[in-house]
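Recall from the previous lesson that a structure prediction takes nothing but the amino acid sequence as input. Here we apply that procedure to NADPH--cytochrome P450 reductase from Rhopalosiphum padi. The sequence below is the only information supplied.
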Amino acid sequence: MENSEGVKIESTVVTEEPLISALDIALFVVIITVAYFWYFKRDKQSSSSERKPYTIQPSSLSSIERTSNSSFIKKLKSTGRSLVVFYGSQTGTAEEFAGRIAKEGARYKMKGMVADPEECDMADLVEMKEIQKSLAIFCIATYGEGDPTDNAMDFYEWLQNGDADLEGLNYAVFGLGNKTYEHYNEIAIYIDQRLEELGATRVHEIGLGDDDANIEDDFVSWKEKLWESVCSHYGIEETGEESNIRQYKLVDCSEVLPERIFSGEISRLKSYENQRFPFDVKNPYLSKIAVNRELHKSGDRSCMHIEFDIDGSNMRYDTGDHVAVYPKNSSELVDKIGELLNADLDAVFSLLNTDEESSKKHPFPCPCTYRTALTYYLDITSNPRTHIMKELIEYASDPKDQEKLKLMASSTPEGKKEFHEWILRDNRNIVHILEDLPSVKPDLDHLCELLPRLQCRYYSISSSPKVYPKSIHITAVLVNYTTPTNRVNKGVATNLLAQLIPTNDELPQPTIPIYIRRSQFRLPPKSQTPIIMIGPGTGLAPFRGFIQERDYARKEGREIGEMVLYFGCRKKDEDFIYENELQEYVANGTLTKLHLAFSRDQPEKKYVTHLLEQNADELWNIIGEKSGHLYVCGDARSMAKDVHSIIVKVVMEKGQMTNSQALNYVKKMEQQKRYSADVWS
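The prediction returns the following tokens.
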């Protein structure tokens, strides 16, 4: 028999067999399985490779985003502008200064725009020469241990690693720093010099603002001379026209649905109700307060030990890191503003940027109520700057109030003196100004536009993740003080924290938004390396974490090096914080030596610096002979400077060096991360 295709088939088979054997089936299954995995793996790889170019990394803009949104040159050309002011800001001050410069450009027929370097393709600077009479100004803060701010990091690295030809670029730089820190305005100085090296033309000498003195005065003085240099360089004259054009316009949002209204979130609407990892400056974690206890034993001052619960958050920290806490203003001050301005604080509004090309559409999350803006988004407790005095003039109905504001807003010696005495020395905030100049009644939406953003507060973490992986500890002194006008000013964050006391019942525990900021303040990689820690008062905080970590290593059977702690406070029986813990660490051998200075327990005041001078041999033995590490935490203005001088003196005497050699030795220690400071002013 033949089938239709002519193939012969045997018809003499006696026993019938299946057409497909078990072996055939097994082979078929193997082939199908291999084909399945090959096909879908190829598809997955293809899909992944197709998606890869569209991935946006958190720290930089994707190539697509840069092409479409980040060309500041295109924005300048399309809107007929010639002035761009970049800012590198960590707390908002540099951004505020940049906005003021851009606004004043109109007086010199230079239409300006403010730009965040993180959102721009800074390689476009090479094209600035294509715009007639163009100028780029940089308001740059130096942060931490001589580091660029987060939003200026990419630009800083571009300058370091690149060799762009910036001939034809006209520029000026204003730096924001603090003289109590070693790396005073280091980033601004570098940018100023590097731009010149790459061929750019400096239109005006660099300005260096000192936040430890009067950075507002530094900025205003530099800005006046800047415009003189601009006029000379471009052959232009000031128009004399004062620019009081609003940057934002008021939008009535009374019809907006409640679920679309911000209620204190930093960036994403309803982010506290729907938390998403990772947590950072724009997306903080709403942490429960697990512990809040008093550390001082007596006296009229308060120091709090607070523990933030991070269990289940996936947040990780290292010993020596900082935690950022987002505060809110007191309801008493907020209500006072509403009362003074006769305003409805529960009205819903939005402020929309009048510059349609600006990437910053709102000054803070909008829409929201005025109460929310004044509580969560605006700084109403710091000293207002001179440009706010200027903007308030038009709202003063009393000629005397007008004249006072005009004087303080001016750059005359008399005006600067009045501003320094009435605002800075007397420590007035916006509430005090409205109280003491009763005829001044600004529109509340304009006031919200003028006030700076309320910033998070940073605290050294006083715990080790090895011992406390599910909580973050801080040590904070409650800030309250009386001003020369007999008002009591209260620290925004610490007074809020003081109210957040956890309960033992079924009630919801108090919460506060936080995130972790990485630090370079680190223990040596090897646990055997000896260390000296100098931390009076709450400067003890990070060292509590250091000691916990070394104690953990000791209990694991690892060898640990010498740990010497210098701690100081006023009185042993009053503010010796963590006393029992420290004594226990001494008893079990983790803490080799504990040097204590109680400044007011004897007729003559005694500080940790006195103990350091007395223990020169011990200091040199650890940092000189044993190549140990030295850490300082606390006040930058005096203590940290005094410690540095003592260390240099010890190195000179015990290391038998000249002053120059000793300074170089200490400098090398800093470069090797063997001398680290976590200080504040």
